[in-house]
Design goal:
It is built from nine helices and no strands. The protein is mostly helical. The chain has one domain.
């Protein structure tokens, strides 16, 4: 498959990924705001405008390179993280759990809504294709972010659940998080762990 044929498919996947990531980051910022931290709002991140959440490397360059280098088999990217001032939260250790869960739960909610909308369209149409891929991307983003590897949301949930001493030690690993993350991907965790979990979640949400 040549690069020319991959570009249109990438643009579609990228557009759907941007929607999912925007909803994800907005949910983080909204819950943080509700729990007492106005940082996301004051920095212009409490918005559904995708431009506010785009990072040149993680959102644009990395997904394109991975997609083209794997002939469309794999794409990975990330939005610019929403800033959170933990000291502004009413109960930092508890609230970080809810803030971290907000992104994945928002993606799962959007996936569920997409599944319901899919029922009103014929099985073979461009709209069905787009909605099915939007649903899948949201589930993948939710499941992937719940992995307890820094700096993913799952690691922050775990930090909030661990005793203070263990939480501090675990937080120290965040500086090496992306190394762990890429090793996780390189070892084939997507095929062995992530995709089976994604399939289970999709079935649970009501997709056939």
């Amino acid at each position: 498959m040549n690069i020319t044929s991959l570009v249109p498919a990438f643009l579609i996947s990228f557009g759907l990924l941007i929607i999912a990531m925007t909803v994800h980051e907005f949910a983080h910022g909204l819950v943080a705001y509700k729990l007492g931290d106005p940082t996301a709002r004051l920095s212009g991140r409490l918005t559904l405008n995708p431009l506010a959440h785009i990072d040149l490397f993680w959102t644009l360059f990395l997904p394109l390179v991975l997609y083209l280098s794997t002939a469309g088999q794999f794409v990975f990217g990330a939005a610019k993280p929403v800033p959170v001032n933990y000291w502004a939260l009413k109960n930092p250790k508890r609230d970080i759990i809810w803030i971290s869960l907000a992104g994945p739960l928002a993606n799962l909610a959007l996936a569920f809504i997409t599944i319901q909308v899919l029922k009103f369209f014929p099985q073979r149409s461009i709209v069905t294709y787009l909605l099915f891929n939007l649903m899948t991307i949201n589930v993948v983003l939710a499941v992937f972010n719940l992995i307890p590897i820094p700096p993913l949301d799952g690691s922050k949930v775990l930090m909030g659940l661990l005793p203070e001493s263990l939480s501090r030690q675990y937080a120290f690993l965040e500086r090496y998080g992306f190394i762990f993350l890429f090793v996780f991907i390189w070892l084939g965790a997507f095929d062995r762990i992530l995709w089976p979990l994604v399939a289970i979640v999709i079935r649970t949400l009501g997709a056939t």
